[in-house]
Amino acid sequence: MAADRTGWTGVKLTPVIIIDTREQSPFTFANLPSEPGTLDTGDYSVRGLERLVAVERKSLDDLLACVGRERDRFKRELQRLRAYRFRLLIVEASAADLEQGVYPQGAYPLNPQGARPLWRSKLTPAHVLGSLAAWTAQYTLPVWLGGTHDESGRFVERFLYQAARTVAGEAEAVFGKLKESA
Question: What 3-state DSSP class applies to 144?
Fold first, then answer.
């Protein structure tokens, strides 16, 4: 991989990202290969580590539904995520977006006043932020507010790489030096 400011210089391991076939708006990954697959839980994982690694992606509209009308179903999904050693809920919004009750930049056209549109939901920012805080505590679930779709995808790629790297390092401690990929 070429050296650049993203920190991918010197990468020797090449994990393959699994994208769930039901994922409706998949990320595009610049540094790691990906392939479709069926995952029991989550939208993204790493080939060979599907029982250890799970990332659940939520657009802002998805998150609002999970805080509101689909809350019980989503809490069951969060319960399943607890079984994964490396788990993450990635939300395609920033903290500022959530606090202001607006959609992320580029998610929807600007309103006639030139501002980003407000949520199409009766939920308040306090409801959404409170739910994220509660889920983080109750399910020991890391939540990352990733900003835009592309920014969120870049973070997920890094997270999945680091999870695979951690597992590879642990295997190396047991079995010795792993063969480097070409």
Answer: strand
**Is residue 117 in some structural domain?**
yes
CATH of the domain at 87: 3.40.50.10130
Burial class (CB in 10 A: 0-12, 13-18, 19+), 80: middle
Q: What is the pLDDT of residues 53-99, one digit of tens each?
A: 999 999 999 999 999 999 999 999 999 999 999 999 999 999 999 99
Q: Is residue 150 within a helix (H) or strand (E), and if so which, with residue range? A: helix 149-175
Instruction: Give domain status of residue 5, yes or no.
Output: no
Q: Number of C-alpha atoms within 13 angstroms, CB side, residue 19?
A: 15
| CA dihedral sign, ordered 162, 167, 170, 175 | negative
Domain count, the chain: 1
* Helix or strand (DSSP H, E) at 133: helix 125-138
Q: Give domain status of residue 53, yes or no.
A: yes
Backbone angles phi and psi of 128, in degrees to 5? -70, -50
Domain that holds residue 136: 17-175
Full-model pTM: 0.86
Please indicate, yes or no, if residue 108 is contained in any of the structural domains: yes
Q: Which two tokens stand for residue 27?
A: 């990320």
Q: What is the residue type of 99?
A: E
